[in-house]
Amino acid sequence: MKLGKQDPRVIAITAAMPEGTSTDLFRKEIPSRYYDVGLAEQHAVTFAAVWRAKGLRPVCANLFHVPATRLRSNGA
Fold first, then answer.
1. Whole-number Å distance between alpha carbons of 66 and 42
2. How far is CA 11 from CA 21, 30, 69, 73, 74, in A?
3. Residue 51: how many CB atoms within 10 A of its CB?
4. 34-75 pLDDT tens trace
5. What is the largest CA-CA distance in the chain?
C-alpha cells in the first residue's frame, strides 16, 4: 500500500483472493490500479509482464503451486 501511494506506476494484481492477500486494502484506497484476474494465476503473470513492459510496476499476489493441488484433487 505504501508503495502504491508513493508511486503512481505501482499496480496490484490478484487471482481471485483479494482478502487472503490483502489486496482488498489496495482496492479500497486505489481502485483504478487494482486488477483481479479471477482464477487465472498464469494470466496474472502475463498481465503483469505486459504492464511492466509499458513502464508500470506490477505486484502480483496469490501465486501458488497449482500443479500439486490439482494432482491431489485428481487422486494422484
1. 10
2. 14, 9, 28, 33, 35
3. 17
4. 999 998 888 888 999 999 999 999 999 876 655 555 555 555
5. 47
